[in-house]
Specification:
The chain is α/β, with parallel strands linked by helices. The protein is built from 7 helices and 5 strands. The longest helix has 15 residues. It is globular, with a radius of gyration of 14 Å.
């Protein structure tokens, strides 16, 4: 089974958040896919954590070593379709990329972001929710 991962799920795993075990359980033996943008969003997430003094550079670098071991296949998505999704749903392009990726790959999206999950379902995407 293919599963589309968003940034929130990856960050949760590599920073040992409470949802880590459940995410690993759900994704075990799955083909993990993300739009290429997720790779850069990981860096943005850590830079935001630096600003809020939530992590040190050393902690972020340790987390990145874990991230590099996760077998994610990064895919290119159709920018035009993604912008149509963003416009129709009044969402950021990064969220639209994930929805577009799930639609193009006919695969469920795993996210911890409730709003993204709701909008994804409104667009016909199956969402795997972690409670």
């Amino acid at each position: 089974m293919k599963i589309i991962l968003d940034t929130s799920t990856i960050i949760a795993v590599i920073t040992n958040e409470a949802s880590k075990a459940k995410i690993i359980s759900v994704t075990l033996d799955a083909e993990l896919i993300s739009p290429e943008s997720v790779h850069w969003e990981i860096g943005s997430a850590f830079s935001a954590m630096f600003k809020r003094q939530m992590v040190t550079l050393e902690q972020a670098q340790s987390a990145l070593k874990i991230y590099e071991k996760i077998p994610i296949r990064f895919v290119n998505i159709d920018l035009g379709i993604s912008l149509s999704i963003a416009s129709a749903n009044k969402i950021y392009a990064y969220d639209a990329y994930l929805i577009s990726c799930a639609i193009e790959n006919k695969s469920p999206l795993l996210t911890l972001d409730k709003h993204l999950a709701d909008v994804s379902e409104q667009n016909g995407v199956e969402v795997l929710r972690i409670d």
